[in-house]
Amino acid sequence: MTAIRIRHTTTYRFREPVQLSPHRLMLRPRESRELRLMSHILTITPDAVTKWAQDVFGNTVALINFPDTAPTLVIGSEADILLDAVDWPVFDIAASAISYPFRYSDEEWTDLGALTIAQYPDPGGQLQNWTRGFIRSNPTDTLSLLKDLNAGVAQHVRYQSREIEGTQSPQESLDRGWGSCRDFAVLFAESARKLGFGTRLVSGYLHDPSHQLLGSGDAGSTHAWAEVFLPGAGWVTFDPTNRSVGGRNLIPVAVARDISQCMPVSGSFFGPSDGFLSMGVTVSVTA
């Protein structure tokens, strides 16, 4: 078990005081069997009214309202967690799902719903054809297929950090041959859905004490990956950026159908068109 402290600060600066719209924050680590949240402190400058809620996926969301104008907005989050994920997890997949293709039960199919449906158009079948290239035989081993797909994303797409907002479509990532961790995650998730798997996107943090993992600027950073639902095993973690399986170095904050639904900070302001000066983000993930 590893004790980890996460500090995440986002700073916005404006040319003059502006009226900040309500902001939506997803910064509180998501507790699970492998992750125990010991404490979480959220600090907002200027003074704001904070309300907490849970979204449809069970993520914890802070809803922030600002009564006064301000020239600067600083959002600080500090969390202490205990992470207990093994290096080489063993997944107890149900006998009915060991080989692909398989069929989810009626209840699973109903509950997974939109998580099995691709979210991006594929008019020429480019993504479909690329994805089916990982099927070695019919039937084939389910976990091996997903591991091959996970590694295949990293083989086809070169990692490149990107600070601008937004996410590339799977077709853009395939055509360009490069992308950030969120582009890798979306490409993997859409490909898995093309094969009929229930898949969700995950945003959170990467803990990298070795300084050797992609997507980490130092000992840790924000990160994105995906999870696939396999009967018997449940939600299995795949990080295509680092070709890894399991949550050994991953600290989830939010899960969602679409990556845009689990942004750490979202909101806007009312002011002059040239009122925005800069945004800065600092993240540290340390043992």
TrEMBL record:
Residue intervals of the Transglutaminase-like domain: 173-242
A Pfam family the protein falls into: Transglut_core
Name of the featured protein: Transglutaminase family protein
Stretches of the chain forming a coiled coil according to its record: none
Domain of life, source organism: Bacteria
InterPro entries, per database record: Bac_transglu_N, Papain-like_cys_pep_sf, Transglutaminase-like
PANTHER family to which the protein is assigned, alphabetical: BLR5614 PROTEIN-RELATED, SLL1233 PROTEIN
